[in-house]
Amino acid sequence: MPNIKWITVLLILNIYATSALAQCVIGDSWYLPATNQAVSQQKVFSTLPSKGIVLLGEHHTNIMHHQWQLTVLKSLFKKQKNLVIGLEMQPRDHQPVLDQWVNNELEVEDFIKHSQWLEYWGSNFADYLPILTFARDNNIPLIALNISQQLLQGIAEVGWEQIPQAHREGVGDPAKPSKNYIKKIAASFTQHSTANQTIDKEAFLRFYQKQLLWDRAMAEKLYETINQSKEILAVGLMGSWHVIDKEGVPFQLQELGQQNVNTLVPWDPNLSCDSVSPTFADAIYGMSKQ
User: Fold this and answer.
1) pTM value?
2) Which residues lie below 8 Å from residue 96, measured CB to CB, with a gap of 6+?
3) 1 falls within a domain
4) Nearest CA to 138 among 73, 88, 92?
């Protein structure tokens, strides 16, 4: 269990209400939070590595984000043919299905069925299909980054400490995050709580553990992937909250020993202009429409 005083959590839940402000990043342009300036796409891509890890954020239901991800992936593939794509959208026990897809052994309907996409991730498969097709057409490995629903349910019911080692799907203990990230998790907890739900300390702690396990699992799989070959560029596709401010997955990667993690985030109305700190991301892409 994390060492969090419940009274502090209550204060956090009260203070960190969500707000969606007007878009503050110009559409169809790149912005560097560290230097507070707009730059060309050429400038952004010239700074990206040909080896290592790049994380691309997304708001899962925003189709423009997936179109943007595909554009970035195509540009990176021109730069580095030894590319792999990591997916938050699939648990690691579905890896054989991703392999079959890339090897052109499955039709779309069969992939949806065997990957249990609708059950595990949701209904917006069509938004991701162009990315999956790009990977298959170019024989780019797809890597399942996430953990199973069964493990997530187990954490929700009994907590991470009570999960037997044999049932942890190879995931290690997450590194303790910053206080700022705990505040973000607390804010997310309020969003996921129903209006008439009683705020419960145990419920928050389980939610906290699940978020950290998501981060840790994705970080470990990306780290494992690039250490199989130092010549690989691994691009992880995941929710922006796992990426922003070099917390979440970047933080867990750093704790594993991967210091150089590049982060690109597409702008979304769900983000607050007030949240754009110098460490928000290495670069933000503004959308022309939302």
Assistant:
1) 0.89
2) none
3) no
4) 73
